[in-house]
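Forwarding the complex inputs:
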Amino acid sequence: MKTTVPPHILSQVLHGRDPVLAAEAARLIGDWDLQALVPDLVKNLRTSRFYSKVSSMYSLDKLAPSESLFLEVFDNPNVPDDFYWVGFKSVKTAAAISLMKGGNPAGEGWLSGLAAVSDPVVLRWFAPALLRLPDTPAGLLTLDVLCSKDLRDAAADTQYTEPGQLCLLCEALGLINDPRASEHLEHYAKIHSRFVRGQAYRSLHMRNPKAETTQKICDWASRQGTDYDLLVAAAIAGDWPKLKRIVKEAPLGFDRASAIDALPASEEFLQVVIEALEDNDPYARQCAVEQLGHFDDAAAWGALEGLAQRETELRVRCALAAVFASRGEAAC
Amino acid sequence: MLILGTDRRSISPPSTEGLTMDGMPRRHPTLGILDDLEINLLLLQDAGKSVVICLLDWLFVRQAEFTAYENILQDLIPGAELMLCATHSHSSKPIPFGEPSPEAISRCEAAGTTLREAFAASLACALSARVEVEVASARIPFLPAPGGNRRVKLGNGSCVSAFGAGPILPPGHKLAGFGGPDAEAIDVLAFRKPGSVNPLALITGYSSHIHFYEIPYFTGEAAGAARLALRRALPEVHPFYAVSFPGDVAQQLCQPIPHDDEAARIRWQQESAQTFGLSFAQAVCPELENLEYAPTKKLSFIRHQESSGHNEEFLLVETLQIGPHAVCSVPGEMFVDWEQAIRANLPCASLLALGYNASWLGYVATPLAFEEGSYEVMRGPVDVLGYPTPATRAKSSTQTGFQIIEIAKNQMAQLFPSTPTK
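Prediction (whole assembly, two chains):
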């Protein structure tokens, strides 16, 4: 069943035409520590014209940070310049942050320039990454800067208030060193998007991991009643029976996948994750594969080998290739 | 017996100096006309009933323009009904580049005049060239789908837009997949003279945006390329191209722009449009041999029109019955999920949808999509966020899609009563 064939599928997909799968292949290479594929990440970062090639940069950050390569991308992102939108700026910003992680301040001026014009790339999309830097440039992302385009401000530009960006804002608010952030998060924990609410729950709990916070989150989630609200709250509260129920019964594949992701890698949940390999949603199967890859258990690896024989979705095959390759084996 | 007349003509602006095109920002004024913008007009008549389907290579049609065209139509054919839709070309509607000069404003006004004159002339030509026809329909698989869903779901549940060159990706997040389905079929309604082999006119409908990037030329974009490819393959056929439910679908992901210099970008746009046009024609043409035509006498029409109560927008849904076939005109940019909803339990043999009618409600998303986010939904939903400022241009709510589908289904139920809709 198992062979020593290298995981070609990851490099094929990484250099393929689907930018979503390519970015996932790059992430898997980084998450599963596949050093042998570092040259593929470098090639992808240099040659791909897709904005999502930054996934290769994030994995290189983990596996083999290269100041000269990141500087090269910062100077020449080699992606189409959508000058009125965020794609080009996002690649340059990702490179600036990777450089700053390594202590190179070449991108600071670029980031300050974006912050000065309240650009959503800095105020939203990369705000959590900037706040996670050991030395976030002083004054770049204060709470007042972050919330200058708040949803509650009627004059706020809609570009800053759509749920995708609010999720990132809530992630950032969980990291910022300002007690007023919790007030903003409580507001976002009640708005119209379950995904913004979910991130607000996580960030609120991160800021204040006490029983009363957990209870408040569970109450809010229960009132909203969507599976997504409930699974995030259940993960925070450690309500594993509820999470297992969502893995098995939620009508939306994404909710089942998120619940699988939220389960701890514990033997108690091994069977439910093995069963999730049969889920009809490819992303849910992918999450199950990555979960099982963390188990050191014959049943888990037997189930993964079985799936490797029949799986046809590239997304799942990539995950299988990554987890097997991390053990020095090949699955696909 | 069903009578058909058609016409097409250029609606390119007479003068383009100092202009650019509405729909997306441009770095430079336009360089001119790459290929002609067109009006394609089809007149159907039966037993005193007249209906005009008019497709414009234009960004969108507003209520005032719709009224102006209706007035022209009533002058020529009293009592006739109008289905007026745009292709949503982002390289069509001229606006002044930069600070508007009086000359540039005048050129834009001239373009509007050209459009109305072309409509009147097309109508007159269609009237003078009418023939008896039979009708047939088909829904043709279009795989691999050039129109791919352009919303990508992150691991945190939100969606990001992926037009241009793929999605942006913040650090620490997975890409969970696409936010909705692709556009996997082309709808065709064909008209031929009784006994002829090939059709005389062909209305096609496909659910995808037609633009690739901010090209500095006036052009019919993918719609123009598809019509051109069909004309080359079938010189005797008058092809029409309608955009059906394109809200979250685009063709831009088929290939990222390969180089940064402007000449290469223009070449890429042309090649992408031509590639799409060819594959469109290759999908459609072989299926025309299998069409089963039938004569029809039934031509009926229902219009629903109401004020939306905001921003002077109105809600317009129209359904035309041509024998056993339905043609619906729907507002704005409806997400492709709504196509699946409207097709459930159809009471007729076929449905062809014409998007971008004169009801400009912006993107009409599903309730879940409003929660997920992305460019398309950032202005709404208005039932939750209200109408904060005119600048936000919020128009549709979480219920708008349901409302439109219900109206269209009710119209079909009235027109096709023998098969009740569920």
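The mean pLDDT of chain B is 92.
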